[in-house]
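Predict structure. Chain length: 71.
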Amino acid sequence: MGVLTCLHQLTPDDGFTVLRVASQLTNTKLHTLAEAVTHWARTHQPLPAPIKEALDEALRMHADTQDAPES
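Prediction complete.
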């Protein structure tokens, strides 16, 4: 969560939501996905493609909700 909140200027709640959505998109346990993200941040090793794609999609989805006009 901290990596995402820092890199993408998200609130902690939004960072958790992005992780949760990416976890669901990849059918990967949340803690496994979070470990992959923190490993990437520490080592700069590439994220596995399915995780990177899911995080990108979750971030796009989050951005779309932020751009939507309020009712």
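Summary: The longest helix spans residues 49-67.
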